[in-house]
Amino acid sequence: ERLYADDIEAILRLKQERNAVILAHNYQTPEIFHCVADIRGDSLALARDAQDLEADVIVMAGVHFMAETAKLMNPDKTVLIPDERAGCSLAESITAEDVRKMKERYPGVPVVTYVNSTADVKAETDVCCTSGNAKRVVESLNVPRVIMIPDEFLAQNIQNETGIEMLTWPGHCEVHERFTPQEIRQYRRMHPGVTVIAHPECPPDVVAEADYSGSTANMIDYVAKQKPEKVLLVTECSMSDNLTTLNPETEFVRPCNLCPHMKRITLAGIRRALENMQTPVTIPSALEAPARAAVERMLAI
Ligand code: 13P
Ligand code: SF4
């Protein structure tokens, strides 16, 4: 605790000196999530709340694509990522050239890209989505089929919900692809009455075993409102860690998988980022306008 206290004190002081805000994804560890974050949320909230910030500096306690999105929304501000290696298996699964080839193959079919993607992939996109608004975004297009990339499982889950045909891409989240329906059934046997909530990046046969599926923010709302006695969050480990203190009456059953990318962000790393103003995110100027337009179209829906 003492170890954390030094870093927390330093970060709170540096935030004032630099006029900085810290945006933290729900998968950040409790000492980041509860002690230094100014804004916490799912990918949608982080993109939306990055829009009207007064600060000069934004520190993204999350992964690289989230920092890029914050930079797209704030081209004149300094956006820092405390560890540039904090990537994402989904963002790394596809290139802009891959998207161009898909568009050639399916001319006229709209391209919906998960925000878990690089700026150059977003620049080839009609509209972005997150797991929190994917259904709404896809339905707003009023078409029988869409190209939905790069998360194959999210696309299949949304196809199951909407009946809209998804042309997709074999990208997977390395955290959520590891859950299996057998594992969920075993936990139900061990914890009778447990409420199971699965993230839509899970394979469809895992989502089919769940009582509810939603983005990390939707999961948080569900637990706060429904107050289940026991809950199993089929997602990244820090979600249960962060929610335990907020929902003392709920027991969190924990099978979870760690995201090695999210875990590259630490209190010490955030402190160093603010001390040395490292590492600023930049976006090639040719990509800025088309990538920002894809995010803005999503936020307008
Ligand atoms: P959400 O927080 O938008 O549900 O996304 C989960 C995730 O895996 C982010 O990388
Ligand atoms: Fe990417 Fe999955 Fe990690 Fe989120 S949890 S950053 S989708 S690898």
Describe this entry's structure for a reader:
By secondary structure, the chain is α/β, with parallel strands linked by helices. It folds into three domains: about 1-85 and about 260-280, Rossmann fold (3-Layer(aba) Sandwich); about 90-175, Rossmann fold, CATH 3.40.50; about 175-255, Rossmann fold, CATH 3.40.50.10800. Helices cover about 45% and strands about 15% of the residues. Helix 1 (about 1-20) packs parallel to helix 13 (about 265-275). The longest helix has 17 residues, at about 1-20. The N and C termini lie far apart (about 45 Å). 1,3-dihydroxyacetonephosphate binds near residues 26 and 201.
Question: Which helices and strands appear, and what pairs or packs with what?
Answer:
Elements: H1 2-18, E1 20-25, H2 30-35, E2 39-41, H3 43-49, E3 57-61, H4 64-73, E4 78-80, H5 96-105, E5 111-114, H6 119-122, E6 127-129, H7 134-140, E7 145-149, H8 152-162, E8 165-167, H9 181-190, E9 195-198, H10 204-207, E10 212-213, H11 216-226, E11 230-234, H12 237-246, E12 251-253, H13 267-276, H14 285-300
Parallel strand pairs: 1-2, 1-3, 3-4, 5-6, 5-7, 7-8, 9-10, 9-11, 11-12
Helix pairs in contact: 1-13
The structure holds 1,3-dihydroxyacetonephosphate (13P) and iron/sulfur cluster.
Protein name: Quinolinate synthase
Keywords: 4Fe-4S, Cytoplasm, Iron, Iron-sulfur, Metal-binding, Pyridine nucleotide biosynthesis, Transferase
Cofactor: [4Fe-4S] cluster
